[in-house]
Protein: Protein bli-3
Amino acid sequence: MSAIRTSLRTSTRILRLNTPKAIPTTTRTTTRTFHATSTFKMPEPLKSTDINSSTDPSVARQYDRETPTDKQISDFFGLADSLKTCLMTTHRPGVGPVSRSMAVAKRNGPDFLFLANAHSNKFSDLDKDKTIQLTFQDSSSQNWASITGKATVTDNSDPRIKELNNPFAAAWFGDLGDGVHTGKAEDPRMTLIEVKADYIAYWLSTSTKLGFLKEIAEANLTGKVATTGVNRELKQSEIEQARQQK
Structure:
C-alpha cells in the first residue's frame, strides 16, 4: 500500500510540473479616424409645389427648339399640302367660336386662300372680327396644324378667283339657271378669303403605329413623358421667313 501511495504522489508532482501556466494577455484598443474626401447626394425629386410651366417636363420640353427654322417651315408646308381640308373657325358675337369645314384653294407660303359663297354666315362673322383660325388634322398619323391669323375678303373682281375656280369648287355653288349665278368665276357669289398667318403650331409624328404604342406603354410603366413626335411653333419672325421661303 505504501508503495502505491508513493507512486501516486510522484505522478501528481509530474502532472503539476508539466501543466503550463496561464499566460497573461493584454487588450490593445486602436482608434481609427476616417475622413470623407467627397460627398455624393442623390438627386432630390421635385416637390408638388415645385411643379410649374418651367419644370413640368410635359410642358417645358413641349416644343422642338433644336430643328433649324427652314426645316420646320418646310415640314409645315408638307403637312399642310397633304391635308387639303381644314376647319375654319370664326368668332360670332353672342355665340363664340363657330367652325366649318373648308377646302383649301391654295397655300401661299404660310398663308391660305379659300373660295366661299358671299351669302355664307361666315362673312357676317368676319365683318365684326377678322380673326380666324384654321385647323388641320390627319387622324391616321395624328399630325395636326393650327394657324391663327387675320382674314381679308375680296369679291369676284379679284383675278385670283378665276385662277382658282374649277369644276370641283363650282359644284359647291351650283348653277341656278339664271345665266348669272353659274358657279363660275364671274358668279357674284364667288368670294375669296385670304388668311394671313400670325401664329402657327403643328405636331408631326416621328414614330410608327407600333412605336407609338411602345412609347405609350413605356411611359405608363416608367412615368416618363411619351415622345411620339415633335411639337413646333412658328411665330411672327419665322412666319415672315416662311413667306420668303414658300
About this structure: The chain is about 30% helix and 25% strand. Helices lie at 2-18, 57-60, 69-82, 121-128, 159-164, 167-170, 209-222, 236-245.
